[in-house]
Amino acid sequence: MRNRALVLTTESARHPFRQRLPAHVLRVRDEAPARARRFKDDDSDWKLFGLSFCAFFTAFYSFIF
């Protein structure tokens, strides 16, 4: 018979593997740092638009001439 450490299960851990994990593995972290990071990299949509526009313009221009 195998000796196991006492692990208390939670209702959210329905799969047998997740039930065996320690509680600190299933804890959800605070998302405040992720929100701060999102505002710092707010111009990524504009960068993607500019890159896509330049790539399309270059490809279209090279096929014409």
Q: Which terms summarize this structure?
A:
mainly alpha; elongated; single chain; 0% strand; 65 residues; 60% helix
Q: Report the span from N to C terminus.
A: 78 Å
Helix fraction, binned, reads 55-70%
Q: Beta-strand percentage? A: under 5%
Instruction: Output the helix-strand order.
Output: HHHH
Shape: elongated
Number of strands: 0
Number of helices: 4
Q: Which segments are poorly predicted (pLDDT under 50) over 5 or more consecutive residues? A: none
Cα-based radius of gyration, to the nearest Å: 25 Å
Describe the structure.
- With 65 residues, this protein is mainly α.
- The chain is built from four helices and no strands.
- It is elongated and about 75 Å long.
- The mean pLDDT is 77.
Could you write a compact summary of the structure shown?
By secondary structure, the chain is mainly alpha-helical.
How do the helices and strands line up, and which of them pair or pack?
Elements: H1 16-20, H2 23-26, H3 32-40, H4 44-64
